[in-house]
Every structure is written in C-alpha cells, then in structure tokens.
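User: I'm putting together a teaching handout on how multi-component assemblies are represented. Below are the sequence lines for each component of a complex, exactly as they appear in our records. Could you produce the 3D structure of the whole assembly as structure tokens, so the students can see both representations side by side? Please keep the chain order the same as the input.
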Amino acid sequence: MQSTIPENNSAHSCSHCAISQLCLPVGVSQQELAQLEALINQAKVYHAGDYAHRQGDEFNKLYAIKSGTLKSVRVDEFGNEHIVAFHLPGELVGLDGIYPEKYSCSVVALDTAAMCEMDYHKLSDLCSDIPSLQKQLFRILSRDMYETQWSTLNNNDLTAEQRVASFINNLSARFEVRGYSATQFQLAMSRQDIANHISLAPETVSRVLKRLKNNKVLDIQNRNISILDVEALNDIIQCQN
Amino acid sequence: MQSTIPENNSAHSCSHCAISQLCLPVGVSQQELAQLEALINQAKVYHAGDYAHRQGDEFNKLYAIKSGTLKSVRVDEFGNEHIVAFHLPGELVGLDGIYPEKYSCSVVALDTAAMCEMDYHKLSDLCSDIPSLQKQLFRILSRDMYETQWSTLNNNDLTAEQRVASFINNLSARFEVRGYSATQFQLAMSRQDIANHISLAPETVSRVLKRLKNNKVLDIQNRNISILDVEALNDIIQCQN
DNA sequence: CGACCTCTTGAATGAACTCAACAAAAGTGG
DNA sequence: CCACTTTTGTTGAGTTCATTCAAGAGGTCG
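Assistant: Of course. Below is the structure of the complete assembly, with chains in the same order as your input.
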C-alpha cells in the first residue's frame, strides 16, 4: 500500500524532525528540548493494519506521529466499532487514556507510519520542570477537545453531502498545514472507514463521491482525490440545511 | 425557576466544598490546597439565562461549578446554535478556550448556579509547583475529551429513542455521582435544548418521551423525570440495530 | 386574566438506510 | 504471469425513520 505522506527519515531528534512545529516542542527552548528528547524512544514503524495499542490496554505511553496515517477505533458496549478520529503527522495519540488509565481506543496504522513513543508519567514529571512544555500539552489537550466537539457538530446536523464535503475539506486543510498539497492527496482510509467516521452507510459515501465527481467538484480515481472546485466544495458545506 | 440541584452554601474554600472530590483538588494535599484556594475567586452566582462568558471572548479564566446547571453553546460558521454540553457541579468550564485563546462556546446558566473563577495562567503556573494538581488537570482534560467522544458516538448511530434514553441515563448517572437521586430529578433544560444537544427535532423528543411514559419506562411531569424501569431504559440503549 | 412561550400532536414528505447484486481492485498461489 | 479468491467499492429498488409544517394544548408570568 502506498503511503499518503512520505516517511520522515530524519534522525531521531525533535530538533531535526520535520513536523516538530506541530508537535510537543512548540514553545520549548533548545536546552529544554534535549530533556524532552531524552525520554522519547526511537520512532517505531507500523505497517497498514498494525496496532500501536488496543482498547483496554493499560495506559502508559503517548505516541507522536512522525509520518503516516492512523485511526483511533473504539468498540462500544454493544460491539459496534466507531472510528473516533484519523491521525496525521504531528498529532499526539493516546491522550484519551490519561483519565481512565487505560486506552479507550485501539490505534491502527492505515499505511506505513512511524511514531515516537514516550512514557506519559515521565512526560508529566518533565512538564513540572518545563512550564512551556506543560503549557503545550495543555494546549494540545484543549485543541483535541475542540476538534472532537467540532466533528460532533459536523456529523449531526449535516446532510450526507455536507458531511462528505466537510470531511474532504478537513483533510485538505490538515494536509496543507503539514506542507502537502491541499488539492491533491491520497486517502489512506477505505470508503467504509470514512462512512463509519462520518456516520453514513458506505453506499451513501460512494454515491455522494460520485455526485461530487459528476459535478466536477472533485476528481476521484480510487483513493486519489483532486479538489477541482474549492469554492463549490465550501458552498456545499455552508449551504443552509 | 426552581434549581435542579440545591445550591451549595458552604464557605468559600475547596476544603469545605461539597463537590471538591469531583473537582480540581483531587489528589492535592491540604497544604497545597491552600495555594489553590488563594487563586480562586469567591463563587459568583448566575441566574437562568445569565452568561458566564461569550463565544469569542478573550480566554483567561476557568470556572468550577459549585452548584446549578449550565450549557455550553456554540454558534457555527453559518449561525446555527449547537449545545455542546450541559454542565453539572464539580465540572470545569472553559477548557476549550486554552488552545484558541478565546472561548469557543458561550456558557449560559439554565437555573441558579454558582461558579468559582480562577485565572488560567496562574493555575497553570501553580501546576508547575504542584505536580498532583497538574496531573488532575491533565486527567480532567482527558476525561472531557473522552466524554465528548462518547457523546459523539451516541448522537450518530443511535435511533431517536436510543438517544433520548441515553441522554436520560447519562444525566441520571451524573446526578448519582453527585449524591442526588439517580431515578428522580428535574431537567434544568428545555425540550428544545435537549433536542438540539442530541440532534433531534423538538417534536421527536416530545414524541419519544411520551412513548417512554406510555411504556412505563419513565414518569414525566413537565420537567420532572422519574425513571420507573432502569432495565427497560438500558435495554432501549443497548438494543441492537 | 390574557399574552407569550414551551410543549405536544397529527399528517405528509423526504433523505439516508437496508438488502441484494454486481464490478473492480488487490492479494494469493500454482 | 495468469487464474483464482478475497476484499473493497459501486449501483439500483424499496423501505423506514425522523423531519417538516401546521395547528392546538398547556404552563408561566406580567
């Protein structure tokens, strides 16, 4: 399987990592950074389908995504799978395990992905010594909360077409922040995964994508997406009702 | 308007606060608690309809709910209001403002409510000195994230009946944790607010509640709810389809 | 007591779902 | 490398559940 985002082959060190400005080091000085690096393990590589951890496993590590795409999957009390989020480089994974002290999601690689691991308790101790690191972790937690709320809103009141458009638009923006094309990218996830995440039937996702293709809003070749008409895409999302 | 939860009239001090075991002081020692209390302002009282802060206001304070019920409301880019959450005593409000540095929701009292205020930056500084406080704030952020994710799942794949049952059940559990009856309580929010929060039309909420009343699962007198058949309520939520 | 707002009820509509079948791509083994 | 299997994605037809729209009932407050 082809990787959506080329793998980052820089040496193991935040200072040389391409996406450190999206990750924990934001606001942390050079000297302090060395302390942070000391508790980060060499990035581990995962292949499509590999699990970083499973729902219910004892919580101890956080993961920082260096490259690739992953999904957080939760099985609810009746056995239904829900894809809580898709994760891109620079994001921190595992934060939802802090409170319950066990992972509340399984994290699965969708393509070849690399993640740095760090012990949460050591990180938390280090935060006491490095206020800027603490602040950044608070910011990340707040941001993740905000983004979860946002995706809740989107999945509820919107039509199928708006949900799909909003999903594509969200991915596009996230690729752009990471320095990739906002208008051309490859989906790392299946139609079924998309459908699950935005709460639609897979058939509906398929139909909507076809309609967007017919209307020349998107070009779609399997999992390759080109956004042909950014404005039209936004109009669909913004369209009242 | 009658308050859902009786107001907590204890002196201004976490050590004497009835719900401190649900709030920031968890895990914090007596001595350290004094430092925390020093930066908490005297609880302010809000009446139904009062705003604690508005969406877009500069973020600076966090609020800890001492008594009463509030809602977090967000207006999206097209002007649609979404009730992101309802808040009960012991909960921390305003955390979603840390990352964007402005409040991303308006917080409105639904009945008479009292909240302690504290400066976020002072709290964050104090967290560097008091590791147990830092850990508790991390826990609270993680918990809120988890609960937001949970409510997302519930609002998506579930039928109208399941959403309403799940909403009632969730409130019931939260009242119970706070020492109130799990089976008899008063809703502080309107049907319209409930409908908005669980993404249904108000008419649908009304119809579902009527059905639950007819089926002797609930007794409903205006905003007074009695859960008559806890098992039946859980069965509705768990029901596969 | 009347005005206003919240809540309830009914009937018709419609958007997304289910189920079923088919098509295409990716993976497997001789 | 090609046939085979498996997985993933697409298409169509009929159904269902929640919505919309409209009207009426019940509370609440001046």
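A couple of points students might notice: The interface with chain B takes residues 74, 76-78, 80, 82, 84, 95-100, 104, 124-125, 127-129, 131, 134-135, 137-146, 148-149, 151-153, 155-157, 199, 238, 240 of chain A (CB under 8 Å). The mean pLDDT of chain A is 92.
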